């Protein structure tokens, strides 16, 4: 089965940048959808960014113009580039892949934005 591992989280000051990565292991065949989600304490998990076959991407309004989702050509490593970070971005960030009817999640990586 597919396993996902996130990395790159940490603590930064407002206005700073971080790039998260998601490494996938296992068999991923055919087209798939990738996404980054986040969940802050006391809040529901929300979609931050998604990538679709053909290179189409979408971003949540709250991160539009600041975040970018991408992946390597091999499709086994995905990234979330985060710029101009705000305290409101503080959350645990999760990598997600959908392949056919299957869905896989990573364990999450903490991002904290504060002075």
> What's the oligomerization state?
single chain
What is the general shape? globular
Specify the biggest β-sheet: 7 strands, mixed
Q: Catalogue the unreliable spans.
A: none
Helical residue percent band: under 10%
What is the number of strand segments?
11
Strand content: over 45%
Structural class: mainly beta
End-to-end gap = 41 Å
Number of helices: 0
Mean pLDDT: 93
Q: What Rg is obtained from the alpha carbons, in whole angstroms?
A: 14 Å
Note down, in words, how this protein is organized:
The protein has 115 residues and is mainly β. Helices cover 0% and strands 56% of the residues. Strands 2, 4, 5, 6, 9, 10 and 11 form a 7-stranded mixed β-sheet that branches. Strands 1-3-8-7 form a 4-stranded antiparallel β-sheet, with no helix packed on it. The radius of gyration is 14 Å and the shape is globular.
Q: How would you briefly describe this protein structure?
A:
With 115 residues, the protein is an all-beta fold. It contains no helices and eleven strands. The strands form two sheets. Strands 2, 4, 5, 6, 9, 10 and 11 form a seven-stranded mixed sheet that branches.
Question: What is the topological layout?
Answer:
Layout: E1 3-7, E2 10-12, E3 18-25, E4 32-39, E5 46-52, E6 56-59, E7 67-71, E8 77-82, E9 91-99, E10 102-105, E11 109-113
Parallel strand pairs: 2-11
Antiparallel strand pairs: 1-3, 3-8, 4-5, 4-9, 5-6, 7-8, 9-10, 9-11
Jot down its keywords.
115 residues, mainly beta, 7-stranded mixed beta sheet, 4-stranded antiparallel beta sheet, globular
């Amino acid at each position: 089965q597919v396993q996902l591992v996130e990395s790159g989280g940490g603590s930064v000051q407002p206005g700073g940048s971080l790039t998260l990565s998601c490494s996938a292991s296992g068999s991923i065949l055919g087209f798939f959808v990738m996404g980054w989600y986040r969940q802050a304490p006391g809040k529901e998990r929300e979609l931050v960014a998604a990538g679709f076959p053909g290179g189409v991407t979408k971003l949540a309004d709250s991160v539009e113009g600041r975040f970018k989702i991408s992946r390597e050509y091999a499709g086994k490593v995905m990234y979330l580039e985060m710029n101009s970070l705000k305290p409101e971005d503080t959350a645990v960030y999760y990598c997600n892949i959908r392949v056919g009817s299957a869905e896989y999640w990573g364990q999450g990586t903490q991002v904290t934005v504060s002075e």
